[in-house]
Amino acid sequence: MKKCPYCRKCFSPHVKVGDRQKTCGGDKCQKALKADNNKKWRQKNPTYFKDDYLRIKAWLEEHPGYLSDYRKSHPEYVGKNRDSQKVRDRGKKIYLDIQAQLKSHAADITKQLWEPSDLDIQAQLDIQPLEITFLFSTIPCLDIQVPFDRSSCVGDNSPICARRSGLCT
Ligand SMILES: [Zn+2]
After folding, report:
1. Cα–Cα distance between 1 and 17 in angstroms, integer?
2. Which of 40, 47, 62, 132 is most deeply buried (CB count within 10 A of its CB)?
């Protein structure tokens, strides 16, 4: 007797298959095993399906109607694809929203930064985190990854520079 790793039921392997039989043979368990094996194979061959687009495109062109027939006979495939696409679209939308927000606020943010009254670090903290990230990423002397260049640091900005980099006096 063996124990099926998927449904946890005990089963006696087929006489001819013996120890090589991994599942109870139930439909769901066989599919789960196949999915696991496919996953393992993809992990071992990570580049196999990469750059495969042209081959598939050519094959589909030689077999017109294949894809639409497949979609008609596999509604669960269509549903799964639609759901994954929705997730991808949502990710893209969030990215575009952030980009748009940064673009539309860029003038305000820059203005706030260079107005002397807004140079107080406490006042800057009232700005949304997103804008703070934007601010720090746009000012060369605040970016500690960029080698510090004194000439790029305008006098009015020096309090922030001093705090952030510890180099500007
Ligand atoms: Zn099973």
Report:
1. 13
2. 132
Q: What's the gap in Å between 34 CA and the centre of ligand 1?
A: 13
Q: pLDDT tens digits, the chain, 169 residues: what are they?
A: 899 999 999 999 999 999 999 999 999 999 999 999 999 999 998 888 777 888 889 999 999 999 999 999 999 999 999 999 999 999 888 888 888 888 887 777 777 776 665 455 555 555 566 665 666 666 555 445 545 455 444 555 555 544 555 554 4
Q: How far is the CA of 5 from the centre of ligand 1 (A)?
A: 7
Q: How far is the CA of 78 from the centre of ligand 1 (A)?
A: 27
Is 39 domain-assigned? yes
| Number of domains observed in the structure of the chain | 1
CB-based contact 39:66 (threshold 8 Å): no
Q: Residue 21 is part of which domain span?
A: 1-47
The alpha carbon of 24 and the centre of ligand 1 are apart by a number of angstroms equal to 4
Rounded to 5°, angle at Cα 119 from 165 and 142: 25
Whole-angstrom Cα distance, residue 111 to residue 147?
25
Identify residue 120 by its one-letter amino acid code: D
Residue 168 Cα to ligand 1 middle (Å) = 68
